[in-house]
Amino acid sequence: xxxxxxxxxxxxxxxxxxxxxxxxxxxxxxxxxxxxxxxxxxxxxxxxxxxxxxxxxxxxxxxxxxxxxxxxxxxxxxxxxxxxxxxxxxxxxxxxxxxxxxxxxxxxxxxxxxxxxxxxxxxxxxxxxxxxxxxxxxxxxxxxxxxxxxxxxxxxxxxxxxxxxxxxxxxxxxxxxxxxxxxxxxxxxxxxxxxxxxxxxxxxxxxxxxxxxxxxxxxxxxxxxxxxxxxxxxxxxxxxxxxxxxxxxxxxxxxxxxxxxxxxxxxxxxxxxxxxxxxxxxxxxxxxxxxxxxxxxxxxxxxxxxxxxxxxxxxxxxxxxxxxxxxxxxxxxxxxxxxxxxxxxxxxxxxxxxxxxxxxxxxxxxxxxxxxxxxxxxxxxxxxxxxxxxxxxxxxxxxxxxxxxxxxxxxxxxxxxxxxxxxxxxxxx
Length: 429
Prior knowledge:
Keywords: Coiled coil. The protein is built from twelve helices and 14 strands. It has three domains: 19-136, 2-Layer Sandwich (Beta-Lactamase), CATH 3.30.450.20; 141-286, Beta-Lactamase (2-Layer Sandwich), CATH 3.30.450.40; 333-427, no CATH class. It is an alpha+beta fold. It has helices at 19-28, 50-56, 67-70, 79-89, 138-158, 163-177, 206-212, 222-230, 249-255, 288-363, 400-409, 422-427, and strands at 34-39, 44-48, 93-102, 109-121, 127-136, 183-189, 195-200, 215-216, 234-236, 259-266, 272-280, 386-389, 395-398, 414-415. The radius of gyration is 46 Å and the shape is rod-shaped. The chain has a six-stranded antiparallel beta sheet. Strands 2-1-5-4-3 form a five-stranded antiparallel beta sheet, with helices on both faces. Strands 13-12-14 form a three-stranded antiparallel beta sheet.
C-alpha cells in the first residue's frame, strides 16, 4: 500500500477504529510531529503521517509491512531492539536528540529526533502494538553546532589569525560536523587565477596534497579545477567513472577517495580566490544540507582569504614606505657626509693658501728654503724639493707629500719648477 502525502494510511485495527482513528488523523495528519502506529511483535506499520514518511523518504511510504522492511537500517542501530523491549515490557521509552542514520549509501543522511515509544493496549490491557511519536530536531541541532563553530571562525578572522590556521580550523570543523566521514580541502588561487595552491587539508594524505598543489584551473581538471574554471559548484559522485577525473583517478584511488564535491570560493567582485572541496571514501550524492554547508563555509573562507589579501597588501605597502624612507635617510646622510667633506676640503684649501702666501712673503728673503714650507703649524722638516704656485702669483716650496696634498685640495695650484717640467712633468713622474 502506498501512502498519500498529508494523509494517514490505515489498516484493520481492532483497537483503533472509529472515533479513535479519526482523533489520530486529526491530531497528527498535518502535524510536523512524526507519528506512526505499529502493531504486533513484528511492528507492522499500520498508519503514519506525512511527517513520518517525509523524514524517512516518501519513496519508502508503505503500510502493512514490518517497520524493519521499511527502514532496514534501524536494525543495526538498536531501534528495533528498543521496540521489542517496549512491546515485551509494556514500559514506554523516550529518547532525546537521538542520532539516526537514515537510508544507505550514496543517499544516507544523519538525523536527530526526540521521540517516545508508547505501548498500545487492547480493552484487556494487553500490549498489541506501539505508537511512535516524535519530533525531528536535526536542523536545530545542526544549526546550533554550525553557529557555534561559525562564530569561533569569525572570531579567528576578526583577531587576524594566520590564514593557514583559519583554513585548517575550518576544515576540521566541517569534518566534525559531517554525519559521515568527510575529508575537506581548501585550495587557494594564484593571483592570475590559472593555478590552485594548497591551502588546508588536514585529513588528506601528504602525497595527495603535494600532487594537486599547483593544478591548473580548466574544464575537466578534476572537481576543483573545473569548479574554479566554471565559477560554480561541481559535484562528482563517483570518481571512478567521472571523465573529469581521468588524469587523477589513480591518485584518488591511492588516497582512498571515491567522491568529490567542489565549490568555488569567490571574492565580492566575483574574482576567484580558491576552491572548497568535500571528499568521501565511497560514491555519494550530496543532500541539500551538504550543499548549503558548502556554500556557507565557502563564503566564510572568502572572508578569511580577502582579509588575508588586504593584510598582505597593507604589509607590502608599509614595507615599501619603510624602504623609501630608509633610502631617503640614506641619501640625506650621504649628502651631509659630502657637505662635511667639501667643508673640510675648503678649510684645508684655505689653510694651504694662507701657508703659500706666508711662504711667498718669506721667499722674498730666502728664494729657495731648505725645509718644506707647507707643514703649517705642525712644521715639516722634510727638504723643500718642489715649488708650487697659484693663479694669484703666490708660490711656495714643499716636500712631495705636502705638494701633492696642495694640488689635490687647491684647484689653482700648479708645479712651478722649471727644471721639473712644470705640472705635466710632475703628473707623469
